[in-house]
Specification:
- A hairpin with a 3-residue loop joins β1 and β2.
- The strands form 2 sheets. A 3-stranded antiparallel β-sheet has the order 1-2-5, covered by helices on one side. Strands 3-4 form a two-stranded antiparallel sheet.
- With 173 residues, it is of the alpha+beta class.
- The radius of gyration is 23 Å and the shape is elongated.
- The chain has 2 domains: 85 residues, no CATH class; 60 residues, DNA Binding (I), subunit A (Orthogonal Bundle).
- It starts with 5 loop residues before the first helix and ends with a strand.
- It is built from 4 helices and 5 strands; from the N terminus they run αββαββααβ.
- The structure holds zinc ion.
- Zinc ion binds next to β4 and α3.
């Protein structure tokens, strides 16, 4: 549903607003206590959360196009944002009219449409679909999260972990 910091997760568990399902590595130390680190928690109340819609930006367009020039198909980190119908020809700044283009292709196309420049798009540019797992993309995921992620799930979710934090481990001197 979302990713939060250890401190927030622990506060939710200690405040009995959430239940720890999986523990992570390491521990969290407060002034007087040491707590096991919850890695997966389940909220005990219902939260409505809108799907992430992606704001149109260079970065997001490059991700959508998988860092691939949409004209020649070259995969590169040196990309430019190309307006398929150029801005000077009143091409809009929308998902459907922007693509990733390598520098040579962008130069070659210049202020022309693909037809005028005799260049072909590899595929039709579309807005990315709203993805409920968007906040999990492009980051390393701890192993214990895998069973909660449909594309990784191989075993059933665990029973709740022994009430994390409700019995604080005393700090060692
Ligand atoms: Zn290219």
């Amino acid at each position: 549903m979302n990713v939060c910091g250890v401190r927030r997760a622990l506060l939710l568990v200690l405040g009995q607003k959430a239940q720890a399902l999986e523990l992570g590595e390491g521990e969290y130390r407060s002034v007087s206590n040491v707590f096991a680190v919850p890695s997966v928690i389940r909220l005990l109340y219902l939260v409505k959360r809108p799907l992430f819609t992606r704001r149109l930006s260079r970065r997001e367009v490059f991700w959508r196009d998988q860092f691939t020039c949409q004209y020649c198909g070259k995969q590169t980190r040196e990309l430019t944002l190309d307006h398929v119908v150029p801005r000077v020809l009143n091409g809009p700044h929308t998902w459907e009219n922007v693509v990733a283009a390598c520098v040579p292709c962008n130069h070659r196309k210049a202020g022309r449409t693909p037809v005028q420049a005799r260049m072909r798009l590899q595929r039709e540019p579309l807005p990315p679909r709203a993805n409920p797992y968007y906040h999990l993309m492009h980051r390393p995921l701890p192993d214990e999260w895998s069973i909660y992620l449909p594309w990784m799930a191989q075993r059933r979710p665990a029973e709740p972990a022994a009430a994390v934090g409700s019995v604080p481990v005393p700090a060692q001197a």
